[in-house]
């Protein structure tokens, strides 16, 4: 078996079916790039496919013909000095630094849909995280769950209601009305009890005559 077989393995991190490439003006001092300064965006310099490939040696951004696969340009992506920069006035356009034999060139790149530009950015961000983790294997991963500093440490408490348990809610401004309702209920209950004892609502009988009265 070829011991260098693994070196030839490559994985595709992202594919964009259609991107546009533009010739861009020189960057002004202390200012970022703006797609609005690239001229007519409906007339790009080139259109084709974009692929992000990862090998053991690193990641490469390829601009290829969508039909023939012919290479138009490529950029090696190094997270320590990224070759991709977002523009200031749009989320769909980027500036890519192309290097070839020590020579550098900058091209503009645009996606048709914002979802495509989002996926492109996420692919590079995910690779950057893995690259940083490989450079510092002793440091904990950024994705590792950490306890919130705003919550005291300790065992979690179960605040769920058990079977048969209830709870009450105090509503501000309703206490007086609730007391009045309770008093009315007590008064009504007492009256009902007396009324029930006297025969279901009939008036009470007069008291018996005194012992001094004459019996017939």
- What strand order characterises the main sheet? 4-3-2-1-7-6-5
Beta strands, count: 7
Arithmetic mean pLDDT: 77
Low-confidence stretches: 143-155, 189-202
The rounded distance between the terminal residues' Cα atoms is: 133 Å
In short:
The chain is of the alpha+beta class and 216 residues long. Helix content is 21%, strand content 26%. Strands 4-3-2-1-7-6-5 form a seven-stranded antiparallel beta sheet.
Description:
The protein is of the alpha+beta class and 216 residues long. 21% of the residues lie in helices and 26% in strands. Strands 4-3-2-1-7-6-5 form a seven-stranded antiparallel beta sheet. The model is unreliable at 143-155 and 189-202 (pLDDT under 50).
Tags for this model:
216 residues, 7-stranded antiparallel β-sheet, 7 strands, alpha+beta, 26% strand
Give the helices and strands, then pairings.
Layout: E1 11-23, E2 46-55, E3 58-64, E4 71-77, E5 84-86, E6 93-100, E7 103-111, H1 114-135, H2 175-197
Antiparallel strand pairs: 1-2, 1-7, 2-3, 3-4, 5-6, 6-7
């Amino acid at each position: 078996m070829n011991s260098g077989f693994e070196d030839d393995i490559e994985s595709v991190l992202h594919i964009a079916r259609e991107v546009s490439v533009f010739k861009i003006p020189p960057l002004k001092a202390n200012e970022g790039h703006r797609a609005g300064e690239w001229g007519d965006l409906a007339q790009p310099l080139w259109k084709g496919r974009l692929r992000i490939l990862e090998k053991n040696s690193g990641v490469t951004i390829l601009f290829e013909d969508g039909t023939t696969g012919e290479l138009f340009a490529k950029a090696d992506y190094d997270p320590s000095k990224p070759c991709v920069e977002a523009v200031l006035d749009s989320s769909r356009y980027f500036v890519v630094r192309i290097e070839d034999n020590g020579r550098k060139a900058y091209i503009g790149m645009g996606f048709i849909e914002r979802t495509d530009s989002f996926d492109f950015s996420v692919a590079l961000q995910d690779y950057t995280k893995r690259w940083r983790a490989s450079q510092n294997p002793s440091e904990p991963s950024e994705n590792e769950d950490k306890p919130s500093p705003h919550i005291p440490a300790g065992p979690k408490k179960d605040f769920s209601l058990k079977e048969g348990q209830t709870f009450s809610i105090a509503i501000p401004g309703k206490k007086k009305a609730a007391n009045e309702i309770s008093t009315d209920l007590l008064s009504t209950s007492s009256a009902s009890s007396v009324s029930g004892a006297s025969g279901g609502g009939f008036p009470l009988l007069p008291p018996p005559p005194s012992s001094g009265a004459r019996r017939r």
